[in-house]
Amino acid sequence: NAGVTQTPKFQVLKTGQSMTLQCAQDMNHEYMSWYRQDPGMGLRLIHYSVGAGITDQGEVPNGYNVSRSTTEDFPLRLLSAAPSQTSVYFCASRAADLYNEQFFGPGTRLTVL
Amino acid sequence: AQSVTQPDIHITVSEGASLELRCNYSYGATPYLFWYVQSPGQGLQLLLKYFSGDTLVQGIKGFEAEFKRSQSSFNLRKPSVHWSDAAEYFCAVGANNAGNMLTFGGGTRLMVKP
């Protein structure tokens, strides 16, 4: 199993550009989520999904869109990038049972100029 | 809403010394508590978790944590630190609601002196 994979690893955007961060998992996990990590603030939840076709907002959803058309994939879209979105982005997945471990991808480091 | 506080942003210990990283949480019901470790440039790895039962939980790499309801704390400990333990450590609380997503503390960066 590859676990949770994210692409790209690094990305530089100009303000106003759009892009999609890719996330895929091969563990057949129902739950997937996106976090952003900023110094001193830990990880903050952006959006999450409890199954294909179902998504919901987390703590910091503004400026981001998600969709979940398959169990495996959960892309995160930035419609019009802003410098405040410079961060490290982590995708995570876990099985539906609350007691299951959440697995994290390796992260995408995004810089918006 | 739940919240997690890690009071120490940076901690430096000597190799072989004992370690305690502090974590305080705020949550109205029985919390689900986790400690994760992040090595430089890496994703997060689960060290241990607490759901119920014995308040002292053992994890990987020789770590343990103790849940103290009266103090709303879940401190991480290790009796003897190794240089390879240098990393950032995150405490998190999971809520028993739709999605059961995690709320993280701000993290504690551990440095180990030789």
For this entry, give a set of tags.
A: 113 residues, mainly beta, seven-stranded mixed β-sheet, 0% helix, 50% strand, B: six-stranded mixed β-sheet, 52% strand
Description:
The complex is a heterodimer of chains A (113) and B (114). Chain A is mainly beta and 113 residues long. Chain A is 0% helix and 50% strand. In chain A, strands 2, 4, 5, 6, 9, 10 and 11 form a seven-stranded mixed sheet that branches. A four-stranded antiparallel sheet of chain A has the order 1-3-8-7, with no helix packed on it. In chain A, a hairpin with a 2-residue loop joins strand 5 and strand 6. Chain B is mainly β and 114 residues long. Chain B has no helices and twelve strands. The N and C termini of chain B lie far apart (41 Å). The model of chain B has no long low-confidence stretch (mean pLDDT 91). Classes of the chains: A mainly beta (113), B mainly beta (114). At the A-B interface, strand 4 and strand 5 of A face strand 6, strand 10 and strand 11 of B.
